[in-house]
Design goal:
40% helix; single chain; 5 helices; globular; mainly alpha; 2 strands; two-stranded antiparallel sheet
Length: 120
């Protein structure tokens, strides 16, 4: 478990702002989702994940990533992100960027504590 806010504003998992303990692995999964979005679109999905400070984040938190992708236009084009991103990629990003950490995709860290999975 971790405490406090750690990381750049665009990558910080929203639960870090709640002033309690949070799962560092699930925060890393969230940051990975931001990386995937940024690599695929050449832009951040939001400027900050602090509620009330960024319209894009607030929209995604309330309406979901799928709705945001369906609406967001590619810079200078009439195409929307939903027209060019594969559904598989969107599903992966959505699983990593889930606002509730208990519903977020994990990176398999539980296998490291399982003796049966150990290579030693």
């Amino acid at each position: 478990e971790c405490r406090g806010v750690c990381g750049k504003r665009s990558y910080v998992a929203p639960e870090q702002y709640l002033n309690g303990e949070h799962d560092g692995f699930l925060s890393d999964s969230f940051a990975l989702g931001v990386c995937l979005f940024s690599l695929a679109t050449q832009a951040y999905p939001w400027q900050t994940t602090r509620a009330g400070y960024c319209k894009q984040f607030d929209f995604i938190a309330s309406s979901g990533l799928q709705a945001y992708i369906a609406r967001r236009r590619l810079g200078g084009f009439s195409l929307r992100l939903g027209d060019v991103l594969s559904q598989s990629l969107v599903d992966l990003m959505e699983a990593s960027l889930h606002m509730r950490p208990e519903n977020r995709a994990c990176l398999g860290e539980r296998c490291f504590s399982d003796p049966a999975a150990s290579l030693a």
